[in-house]
Each structure stands twice: as C-alpha cells, then as structure tokens.
Amino acid sequence: MSRLHVTNDYVLELNNVYHAGQMEASTCLEKMVGNSSVGVVLKDVSVEVHGGELMAVLGSKGSGKKTLLDVIARRAQGPTRGQILLNGVPMSMRLFQDSCAYVGRKCHLLEGLTTKQTLYYAAHLTIGSKVSSYVKSTRVKQVMADLALIHVANHGVHSLNQSEYRRLAIGIQLLRDPVVILLDEPTGDLDPLHTYMVVSILSNHAKKYNRIVVLSTEKPRSDIFPFLDRVTYLCLGDVVYTGATRMMLDYFRHLGFPCPELENPLMFYLCLSTVDRRSQERFLESSNQIAALVDKFRMDGRPFRKCAVSYADHVMETEHRLPLTAYGRPTTTQVLTNLMSREWAVLWNCGSPIGRSQFFLRLLLLPVFFFLLWIFYYELPMNQQSYASRNGLLYSCLAGTMFLSVASTVAVHPALRTRYYQESRDGFYFGPSFILARSLASLPLSVATVAAASAIIYFGMPMSTNPFQYLLFGSTLWAVHYFMEQQTMALLMLIKSSFNAALTSLFLGIVYLNVGSAMVRAVPGLPDYLYYLTYVTQSRYAAAVLNEQHFRNFSSLPSVLNSTLSIPCPSGTTFSNYGCRYSNGTHYLMERYHLTHPPYDDDLRFWLNFGLNFLFTGAMFFANIILHIVPLPAFVKSKFRG
Questions:
Q1: For residue 31, how many C-alpha atoms fall within 13 Å in the half-sphere facing its CB?
Q2: What is the DSSP string of 170-198?
Q3: CA nearest 634: which of 1, 21, 11?
Q4: How many other CB atoms are there within 10 angstroms of residue 596's CB atom?
Q5: Is 1 exposed, middle or buried (0-12, 13-18, 19+ CB in 10 A)?
Q6: Alpha carbon of 539 to those of 395, 545, 557, 624: distances in Å?
Q7: Are the beta carbons of 156 and 181 closer than 8 angstroms?
Q8: Which pLDDT tens digit goes with each residue over 162-191?
Q9: What's the CA gap between 605 and 609, in Å, rounded?
Q10: Would you say 137 and 99 are in contact if contact means Cβ atoms under 8 Å apart?
Q11: Residue 330 CB coordination number (10 Å)
C-alpha cells in the first residue's frame, strides 16, 4: 500500500486527467427516470496546488467542478485516466481517506448533539489511538476557535444558523488535520458576510498549518479575491485557466480580455468561461471563443500552472507540524464505544426536541401502550368468554411490540443511517461497526422498555405471581421487538424514505401475525402450503410460547350461564351442552394447534419454540451485518449520496 511521506511541503498534482461519467439530465424523460447519458466530463485536466494555498475551482453549472473534486477523492463513478499525485504518490481511495478530507455540499449532522459534542465524538472517531485524550480535547477547542464556533459550543446543532452549521461540518473534517481538504460549494447557501468569513477561515487554515485547500464555487464574490492563491476555470470539463490568481489578470489581458476597472475579476472571467445560451448566434460565438481559450492554455499554460505561490514567510509555527492523520485510525473497540456513546448522548440530551422525542419513543412508548391495554383488559371475566379476551390480549401484546418497535426505529435510525453513509465514505468506520454499535446501543434500551411494559401486563392483570414466568413472557416479547428493529434497519439500508420503509416492515409484520401466530386463524385450519410457511415466521414461535405459557395449565372456566354460580364446565362438554366451548386451557390449545396429530408434529414444544424465537432474532442481526458488508448496487447507493 502506498503511504504519504510526511514533509513540510505538500503538492497535489493532476496530470492529463480524463473522466467519463453521467452527464447532467437534459430531457424531461431523463429527469423523471433519474438516468442520463454517459460522456466525457473532464478533458485533459492538469492542475497543481501546493501546501499553504487555497485554490478555487470556478465554473457554471455542469462545468465539471464537483466531478473534479470527486475524481481527486476517488469517489467519481466511471473510468478515469491520467495521474493524480500527492507528493509524487498516486492517489488511491485509502490514501485519500488516510491523509485527506472531503466536505460535501450536503452534510447531515445529528441534531440531538451540541456543537462541542459533535466535534468531541468526531475527534474520537477519526484521530488515532496513539493520540491522548488531552490532545484530542485540545484539538476540539482549537478547531472551534479557528472556525469561530466558541460562542455556540453548547448550542444544539438544530439551533445553528446556516453559516455555523456549515463551519461545524468543515470542523469535523479539520479535526484530524488533513493534508488536503476538498470542499464542494462551501458557501453556496450563505450570505455575503458569512461567505467572506468562511473563505477567510479556510485561507487562514491553509497558511497557518501549511495545508492544501481546494473549494468549488459557482458565484464568486470580489471580496474573496485576496484569499484565493490559485484559481481553476472549467467549462464543460475543459480547463480555461489554472494557476496563480495574481497572474490571471496579466494572462487574460495579454490575450485581449482585460478586466474592467470596477468589475469583479473572478466573475468577469467566469462569464468569459461560460457558454452563452441566450441565442444560437451567441452560443456559437461563445463556444468558439472558449475553445480557442482552452487550446491556447493547453499550449502555453504550463508556466502559469507550475508557478509556485510562495508563502513560506507567512506559514506560522504550530505544535501540529506533523499531521494528526499520521497517527493512524482509532481501534475498532474505540469506534464502537464512541458510536454507542454518541447515540446515547442524543437520547439523554433532554434539553433538545430530538432528545425528548427519542426518550419517549425508545423508552416510554411501549409501556404507555401496554398501560392502555391494562386499562382496557382489566378485570377479565372469569368465564368461557375469557379465552377469546385473553387471546386478544396476547395478540395485542405481540402486535403492539412489533409495530411500536418499527415506529421507534424509523424515528431514530434514518438520521444515524445518513450520518453513517457520509462517515463511511470518509473512511471513519464501515458497515459492520455501525450496525454492531447500533445494536449494542439499542440493547439495554429495548430490554428496559419491554421489561417495563411486560411488568404492567403480567403483574397488573395479574397473569401470574411467578417472577420466572414473567421473565419468560418479557424475554419472548423482547426477541420479537429486537427482530423487528433489526428488520426495519435492514430495510432502511435499501429504502431511503422512512415512511416507505415503515410501511414495508409493518406489512411484513402483519403477514407474520396473520399467518403464523395462530391467534387470528387456527393452525389446523390453514392450507398445507400456509402451514409450512409458518415455519419461517418468528411469530409462529413467539405466539406458541405465549399461548402455551398462558393456557397450558389453565383451569376450567364456567360458561356464561354458570359464571355467577362459579360452576366449572364438566370435562368433555361442548357449547351445545352447557354453554361451554373449552373444558380447560389444553382443550383451547388443541383447537388452535396440532397436538400429536399425524402427519403433523406437536406444534407446542415450549423450549424448542422459545429457542427458535431467539434464533430468528440472532439470524436477522447477522443478516443485517452481511447486508452492511456486501457492496450495494449503484442505483441504491445513489439515493443516499449528498
């Protein structure tokens, strides 16, 4: 594996780079379908930028600015040829992730955290284990100071304005002190004052730490001109000019395009490098003019591209001369610990709306639902009608556990999933670490909420006073809760819309319940193909455990007619005799399940069903791990790209 040699002078070079990829959708059909034609996006691009310099990539929409940054970051989809070198070392995905950083146009942060917490967890996820916690904490404070975020250190991310939010996103990448940082439209949504602030901060960072900063922008303002050491003008993938900003004016003046005295030179030459589409004549004229400028720079532009902008006198002495990226990455254990701590920090941050809603959804929603069930089913009649009522209670417990698990997961997981997609592209951590940390962080929360909910029903009815029976009841429901959570997370891996993922997971849950639970339709009444289908549904085993636990030793109940006299139904009687349908609980189970009736096995094997219930939960967890390891198709990944 190629590694970057640590030095005080860094050079990023692109030599004769071509890239073919998807062009911008031009027809209504392409825009509706979400597909577009493939063509050459970058054409013979050669660029050079040194440490301590800030370079702006300028161009109109569709000129190839973002593609150029993606090609440097090794993120671009499609074939690329040419050389991309960092200090003479060919740029690879691993080298970029280890030594460089990328700030996308869209960045989704966890809104339940504060600014300081966001940077704290980012530091512990990105800076190597050899760096002490004190140095990481100091680095967080330094980045907040450099990016003017000290005054909002304890403010929630949800309360930040656009400029503060954008600076925080930049700060996450600056924490590990990358040698090169690429920024796609970092000032796109900002007003002039904050645009000036962001560009000046980036310029100061480049010179203070002798780093390379490359940003793209579509509408450069004149007040940022002094901060740009280099500029690169692109037009439809061709380089119109790249080199020192101070030489740009002389270059274009020599070609007969002097910038008027009161004009913004950045915008003036951007207009010169943009095809005029207002009429066919202007289109042809501007296209020919730009083609001539591209050919001219291709022949005579090498001295301008290679000209070094010397800032040696301005590079400040700092204690971080050696980039923090040189200290490697955190260990897997550290990554897991910090991912779990970050998720819990969102939950316990009750000062934010996100924290309060997550606290309710993850800890209180299921107990509240079970409390409503307790109110509804309290004082069950002790007669034959009680069998149907108790069946309804167990069904409601099982269905509520499944559906509310889906509801809490789709409310919490999408933000974490989006953050995972962005952080995994940056190489912070990868799918198995993410899903393992999510599962471990959720484990105590799901146990707590199911235990509290189960206690309300089991001791409140009461069903039994035996604590062991309560543990069996609660653990059976927990396995179902955790299974549905894992299933929903797996669906959210493939489906971007939380609503659609929730509907899909709920639909599957309804199928599980109606086919396999024996609470809606008795198993003996199912066609053979549906009966064998129940073997692959978790609800078959969970419901069998709940039914057998509750009804197996259930004593005889009187009929409705005899309930006031408490006269039990005689053994073997039927509804037609004495108004009794079930002589006891076993008789009820015989109607719902196959009990030693060939060619079927006994459906009620308590401990086997109990174990298989948990086996389904474990299998779904490992399936989720595998899903986060296997590379997804491009059309799926494109949904989540920012």
A1: 3
A2: HHHHHTT--SEEEEESTTTT--HHHHHHH
A3: 21
A4: 10
A5: exposed
A6: 10, 10, 28, 19
A7: no
A8: 999 999 999 999 998 899 999 999 988 888
A9: 6
A10: no
A11: 23
